[in-house]
Amino acid sequence: MIPVTEPIITIDHVSFDYVTYTKQSGLSGSWHDLFHRQKQRVPAVQNVSLQVAPGEILGLLGANGAGKTTLIKLMTGILPVRAGSLQLLDDQHPFQKRPAFLRRIGVMLSQKSQLAWDLPPLDTLVLLREIYQVPHDRFTDWLAFLTDQLAVTAQLKVPVRKLSLGQRIKFELICALIHTPEILFLDEPTIGIDVSSQANIYRFLQQLNRDTQMTIILTSHNTKDIEALAQRVAVINHGRKIFEGTPNGLIAQYASAATLEVVTDAPLTTLPAHVTQVADSQYLVDAAALTTLPIDPQHILSVHRRNGNLDDILTRLFSQEVAP
């Protein structure tokens, strides 16, 4: 009998609204607002339920303003839960920010930096060592491993302002990992960096998850991040969860009728039914109308499902209201 693993994160019907105030224009409007300020509630997360297993990599997908980052802030205790309940590890109140809880999570927010601009990254990391009370020997060994894996050992003593964007992102990641958390939260971890640095971060996070069973919660607009790392995804749209499952399950559920893109080693002499030529040796095949591919396999160089592209599916999902 396979033992049932307790979730490391449990989100149960959680909601959160931001409170904003309207501002009227002109002097008279400012005078009116001084005595009759209009308050407005903006729903950011609406009735979201989600569970994450220990050692899992979960990708959170959503358009700008969909509620992904707000959900991360609720889980990490940056924001309080307005309705519903949320439990991380064995703590039901992340917003209380108990030291024992904070030592078990690591957070990297793309719009917030832990690094001091005029100091080398080593100074910030030494400060974090003291804050998290990491033993000196373990800190030295772990830092050497992290900087070696992310190829930034030579930049440890270089002022942050002189580092490239990719190097700064890697040191932000090291800051989030320096105390070896059990859960790592990454909000847009590869934004703006080159493909080589992205590949380095993917490989490192995959190895980290495999070797330490660290749970990773990842948000990203770059679907390459999700495809490379996420074992499961949750799609958030207008504050609501509209999908939860595997990346392949998302494609299967929301892809339109199957269209195959076929590339051959030479142009076809005759065009079979339900096949459309788009270039000399490139064809679109209406797979929904066929049971077998009407092209000789000996001449096929590649076959791709054209509308199974995750970017296309997400663009379609986020451009319209989708019922959960």
From TrEMBL:
Per the record, the domain of life is Bacteria
Q: Name one GO molecular function term.
A: ATP hydrolysis activity
Supply the alphabetized keyword list.
ATP-binding, Nucleotide-binding, Transport
SUPFAM superfamilies in the record: P-loop containing nucleoside triphosphate hydrolases
Matching Pfam families: ABC_tran
Q: Which ranges carry the ABC transporter domain?
A: 29-263
What InterPro entries does this protein map onto? AAA+_ATPase (IPR003593), ABC_transporter-like_ATP-bd (IPR003439), ABC_transporter_ATP-binding (IPR050763), P-loop_NTPase (IPR027417)
Q: Gene3D superfamilies, alphabetically?
A: P-loop containing nucleotide triphosphate hydrolases
Q: Which family does it belong to?
A: Belongs to the ABC transporter superfamily.
Q: What is this protein called?
A: ATP-binding cassette domain-containing protein
Give the organism the record lists: Levilactobacillus suantsaiihabitans
